[in-house]
Specification:
63 residues; alpha/beta; two-stranded antiparallel ribbon; 1 helix; 14% helix; 30% strand
Length: 63
């Protein structure tokens, strides 16, 4: 997780393309954060409840 002032951003990191685990989704459903980020081998994708960022692009995330 990242904390920026009073905002907490949950982060999940996957080292593969199998993205069927549900831990980040469970957290989002329970705590309703404004934003959630998953880093994985999959391509960039915005969903209504999170953003998937490819692992090769982790260096461009600025907070």
């Amino acid at each position: 997780m990242l904390q920026c002032k009073q905002t907490v951003i949950p982060i999940e990191v996957k080292a593969e393309e199998n993205l069927k685990t549900k831990s980040l989704k469970v957290y989002v459903d329970q705590f309703h954060p404004e934003q959630a980020i998953r880093f994985s081998m999959a391509d960039y994708r915005e969903q209504d409840w999170m953003v998937n960022v490819p692992l090769y692009a982790t260096n461009i995330i600025l907070l």
